[in-house]
Design brief:
The protein is of the alpha+beta class. The chain has 2 domains: 264 residues, no CATH class; 131 residues, Alpha-Beta Plaits (2-Layer Sandwich), CATH 3.30.70. It is built from 13 helices and 21 strands. The protein has a 10-stranded mixed sheet with strand order 12-13-9-8-1-2-3-7-4-21, sandwiched between helices. The chain is globular, with a radius of gyration of 25 Å.
Length: 455
Amino acid sequence: MNEVRVLTPVGMLGGGFPPETITRGLALGADVIAVDGGSTDSGPYYLGSGTAKTAAAAVARDLRLLLRAAATAGIPLIVGSCGTSGTDSGVDWVAGITRDILAEEGLDLRVATIYSEQQATALKDYLDRDRVRPLPPAGALDPETLESCTHIVGMMGHEPIVAALRAGAQVVLAGRATDTAIAAAVPLMAGLPAGPVWHAAKIVECGGQCTTNPRAGGVLATIDATGFTIEPLDPDAACTPESVAAHMLYETVNPYTMREPAGTIEVSQARYRALDDRRVRVEGSRFETAAQHTIKLEGARITGYETMSFTAIRDPHILGQITVWAALLRRMITEWVGGTLGLGPEDYACDIRLYGYDAVLEEIDPATGPPREVGVMLLVNAPDQATATAVAKVANPLMLHLPTPDMDYLPSLAFATSPAEVERGAAYEFVLQHAVDVDSPTELFRIHLPEAEHA
């Protein structure tokens, strides 16, 4: 193929998009529909628990439109990082929704699933052979950390997806994958140069985010031997050289390079040129193949169990010395919990966040002057839920009536909920920031091909 047109409808499956933008993408000659199904943006909970952040109804709504489009045009549909974090359960969840839609719509599409979840025992073998290395700022990996993870996934490149397509898949539902791999698979399989392919895949990864109106829908990238052209699917939106080039700043350490399992995207010599008031042409991108293929690991483990309490302050006297009040609250909680529950600071963690006063930027917040109101979030983490809730309950009267040291009366603050203590369940943390050296790009992944569906 001399060129491949990649349609990316939205930045994440379940995010929603106008149906007419898909119709327009097909009319423009799309050769593949590629959409990301997940991210680590929302923290470690979804990987740790193996659950999705998107609603099943929202995913089904998007999938129905995309499956119809793929069947109508006779082009593949590729979904990466299924179920948010790409766990096996996430792939199965999206696959179940897909099967239901295919049956309801009377569509006969061959579906392949690719599983990216890893077992600690298998990874220990790579560790023993000195084939696992930390990525900054992580330190060396030990077997105990692997064993502590509730879920571990490997981040695949395009190769497992290409393998599924070559085996006859029309729909590929992949576990954890780089955002770019899903868009790069078909153009690379068609023999197009890696430089334009990977750069285009990076630009389209978030759908319309590279346009002047990200809410209007996705984009279509036409990739050829010397570069790529990108345009929005909504006729009223536009791509500009600035909006396209700016996306290389998104989620990258260096705006000119980005590492993939197979190598590095290099765009320092790329040139962005407006073809008209809606389309942008990009040329000069390169891809430097790495001497060693690597697969990045992501893993999460339970850190404890959390209970949250939230109160609000509008008392101007307290707000005038909010940091003094917060320090007093922390000291009083420590004293009361020690005296009432017999727990020391080593037995639980207590986080106090002042929303409306430095809760987001903390000491680098440029705002000055006393706030008009502050929301106080108390987040307690303990080895078990009962202990976390008990600590929050001991703090309850302090969250409701604590005065500043110079007040001679008890103020009344405002809890946001009743009961004031909200049990959040297990809390998780990311603990893997490591890469595995592999001999084959597909060796850590299990590909279930269409022929195996009815075996």
